Amino acid sequence: MSRPLLLVAVTAVLGLGACTSGPERSPSTVTSAPISTATAGTPTTASPSTQAAPTTAPPTTTAPPPPTRVGAAAVLSSGLAVPWGVAFLPDGSALVTERDSHRIVRVDPQGRTQLVGLVPGVAANAGEGGLLGITLSPDFAQDSLIYCYLTSSTDNRVVRMSYRNGVLGPPSPVFTGIPKSGVHNGGRIAFGPDGWLYVTAGDAGRKERAPDRSYLGGKVLRMTRDGAPAPGNPFPGSVVYTLGHRNPQGLAWGPDGSLYEAEFGQNTLDEINLLTPGGNYGWPTVEGTIGPTQPGLTAPLLTWSTDDASPSGLAFAGDSLWLATLQGQRVYRIPVLAPGRVGAPTAILAGQYGRLRTAARAPDGSLWITTSNRDGRGNPVAGDDRIVRLPLTS
Q: Which of 99, 184, 222, 389 is catalytic?
């Protein structure tokens, strides 16, 4: 593949038993990754020819900051129904979308919830589609606008609404025509540090078209606030930013502006990628690292067995990426050693709260983790679905 990246295959960190009905992927038998010969909990590294070279700090360099410490997790809010997207307001509360009910609820830092409104135009019984990602305008303090990704009767689309004094305005379309399906709808949206809107679009079951620039599925899109191709996009006149994705649902930026993405594999390997403009991430020619090595295809930074991951939410906080997983039912902490260079992941919250959908960094520095136990693939318990707060301190 094209870039010399650190490539890690994680096979079974703090192993759980295999789950059935693999989430966000076509129904099939989940198998273990055949490329790894490591024992459980031991990551394998790439060959010396492809592994990122270690760096040595000169003696005069100041010591790195202490690693981020993880506090005790606690349930912040309960009684939600498949919470999917989380967008924090200036007061520290968050707007949370519910995939199947099509509601937006406001959750304050004490965990109290308030219904904001029902978003019209979302298709019923949309499978993995529905009311998905949410983000605030970069100028929310002035324009009071929020953006959502939803499944309509004809497509997946980005819409824009006002949110003033607790009241939700009607949606207006910003970008339409993203392919929809009962599976592989993507759905994460976020404004990057460059001010442009990034949108993850799943292949909608058309894997052969994931590398096709004329097809909007299987892509990460980059656009203006009004849905036009963002200036500097790699393909003139196109919103396509990267291609060759299966079902991307995680986006997170490091402090240096590096963009990381998480996506579901099919039967064997899930991925985290470092995105570069115009990059082709290999699907369907390659799943993770399984498949022919070809010029022009970009290798993932990390892979996991699908039993241990099914990655959906991704956040950057402190010194690490934090990955929420559905079938894996855990959060992975992935230390970022340098831009595009990561250390071995460790698992936390393993099996404690069930399926985990979203990881979002709150204004107070903590992580909010949403469960997804009422999505038809989990085993809900009293209180589901929940938001779990994970304190982080330096």
A: 184
Q: 328-343 burial string, b = 16+ CB within 10 Å, else e?
A: bbbbbbbbbeeebbbb
- CA atoms 372, 376, 381, 384: torsion sign: positive
Domains and CATH numbers, the chain: 80-357 (2.120.10.30)
* 184 included as an active-site residue: yes
Sheet of 189-191: strand order equals: 189-191, 197-201, 219-223, 240-243
**Nearest one of 264, 393, 382 to 323, comparing CA atoms:** 264
- Asked whether 325 and 311 are in contact (CB, 8 A), the reply is yes
- pLDDT tens digits for 107-158? 999 999 999 999 999 999 999 999 999 999 999 999 999 999 999 999 999 9
Cα torsion through 376, 380, 382, 383, rounded to 10 = -70
Judged on CB neighbours under 10 Å (0-12, 13-18, 19+), 2 is middle
pLDDT digits (tens, 9 = 90+) for 297-341: 999 999 999 999 999 999 999 999 999 999 999 999 999 999 889
Q: CA torsion, points 190, 23, 276, 4, in degrees to nearest 10?
A: 150
Q: Name the pTM for this structure.
A: 0.87
Chain segment 22-34, per-residue pLDDT in tens: 446 533 322 222 2
